[in-house]
Predict the structure.
Amino acid sequence: MNPISNSKIKFLLGILFLFFSTSQANTNIASVKFVFTPPKFIPIAINIEFLHAMRMAANENVAKGELGIFNVSGDIEKEYLKGHKHVVVHVKNEDDYRGTLLCVSKFGIYVYSDKSLGIIYLSYECIDWIRRGRSYGNVLWKAGAILGTFFAYRNNEQSFDAIADGYIMGGVSSITFAQILLAPIYTIRLNNKNIKFPVNYTIANGLEYYKMVLSNSSMYSNKVDIKSFIGFEPSEN
């Protein structure tokens, strides 16, 4: 074969090899780019990357026809959540999620519940409403415990039955007190958007909630905005 022709063939083969190698490399890069592994546990230091990964995992749930909710189990000691408010989140399937509002974003909120549920991300599209503070039943239970302890203390020099009667009196008194005084106040509070915010499954209302929380950051903690959430490190707090 002519040496010149042989060189041309080698040159063409080299070009083809480079072309296919580049194409294969681009395919591999593309496949790696779209591989996503949801987080499985709460890290020692919670940062924005971790919170973003939770949102991405919730988005994958939406793509499967599920609610935009994703949780990562694990424990955060309550002393490191001081200043963060308790919230109740009512979602589309009528479930309630209760816990501490860790932070808010333009897409959803992050709530720390307990060790089993850990941190829960809830997208605004799946949220009916968000209420700040404890439930009416929780307030009633505490009132009963306080009044019951008071009456039991007054009967502590008498019999065990007298002490038990004291707790019963406390329970009855707390229910009466709640119906007369607490129930109307609690009902009025729920008409305040700063207390119970109607998201109604929309991003637009979610953004309004996000702005409302930031404008009242003193009520929710100065670390409630995800933009300034540079890290939650219990070992340094």
Notes: Confidence is low (pLDDT under 50) at residues 16-20, 27-32. The CA atoms of residues 41 and 72 lie 5 Å apart. The helical segments are 3-33, 48-63, 136-154, 160-189, 203-215, 217-220. The first strand starts at residue 69 and ends at 72.
